[in-house]
Amino acid sequence: MAIAISLPRLKSHIEALSRFGRNPEGQGITRSCWSPAHEEARAWLLDKMKEAGLATKVDPAGNTFGRLGGEGPVVMTGPSESWRASSVCTRSTKRGSGRGSP
User: Fold this and answer.
1) Which of 39, 62, 76, 100 pairs as cysteine with 91 (C-beta 3.0–4.6 A)?
2) Which residues does 71 contact at the CB level (< 8 Å), separation at least 6?
């Protein structure tokens, strides 16, 4: 499956995420893990994933997963999203291996 990236949409999403935890002077972003800003950003991300047709999940460690279909690539963010505007990676999973391939 080929994945096309829309640069205007990506920029728009990064700018939208930057609203959550923006410092009062507008200089930088502080989004500590589990803070209200972090949870608002996660809720925004989950909504965007659902709008894109992904099945979503948040595990007990706070990792956020989105999957399109049953065996396709996974979009995953972890607690490190609190210090990056966007920390999305994709990985393939192999049934039975117990681990994905980075």
Assistant:
1) 100
2) 93, 95
Number of structural domains found in the chain:
1
Specify if 75 maps to a domain. Answer: yes
Per-residue confidence band for 78, with pLDDT thresholds at 50, 70 and 90: low
Residues 6+ apart with CB under 8 A from 57: 64, 65, 67
Range of the domain at 28: 7-101
Q: Does residue 2 fall inside a structural domain?
A: no
pLDDT in tens, 42-61: 999 999 989 988 888 888 88
Would you say residue 65 lies in a domain? yes
Q: Residue 34 and residue 79: Cα distance in Å, rounded?
A: 9
- E strand segments, the chain: 55-58, 64-67, 74-77, 89-93, 100-101
Of the candidates 98, 38, 37, 28, the residue with the CA atom closest to the CA atom of residue 63: 38
